[in-house]
Specification:
The protein has five helices and nine strands, in the order H-E-E-E-E-H-H-E-E-H-E-E-E-H. By secondary structure, the chain is an alpha+beta fold. The protein is globular, with a radius of gyration of 17 Å.
Length: 236
Amino acid sequence: MTRLGSLVFCAGLGVALLACGSNSPSGAGAAGGNGGGGTGGTVAGGTDAGPTAKTILDLVPRDNTVSGWTVDSDNSKTAGMVAATGTTEKQTEDLIDGSAADFFAAPNAPVEFAWQNYISSTVTDAPAGATVTFYILQMPSPDQAASLYSSLLNASAYGRKKGTPNDWVDPTSPLVGTDSRVQDTGTTWWINFYKGNFYVEVNLSPSQGPAPDFTPGDVATKTEAFRFAQAVAGNM
């Protein structure tokens, strides 16, 4: 994906992230500082309306929602807000400093795109910590979430990275969301999955530093990437 890279994987994934177009700290505002929604309500007459559907911002992790991971305060585009968001292809493209065409290619029509970056200093085998780039798109229906998940494999940015040790793998364990896939790009662990109306990408980039530096196929960092993705899916 020619957008995720700019953010966390300058190392070669080529996936630029959000710059800030349509985004005021929409996350904090729309949710009263915590994402809002996701709770039950009472209609006139005292009838419990039941739980409302979660919004995209309800699903963006906060500090230590995934233990050990906090929002990257050094990223000027996403710090101080729940997430940077866009509702159109142009807004999303401005955010990620690159093309958003793959996300918005017909017949897919995302309702909203959100992005946040995280840091951790406790990831095993990452001597100076690690970072996660998190993308989530809300689609109009579960069918469109599944369609986006499938169609992205036809996009050049989602092909096997040159020189990487592994192509996309569909893990049977742990399975994340309704369906998921993972790729070891050689410098990061990249997980895609969908569940309900949402499509998600988690890209974990271990620090580049003194031994033991990240090596392709590192099990500990793969496990951590899945732990992050599972925490998100479990909140859906």
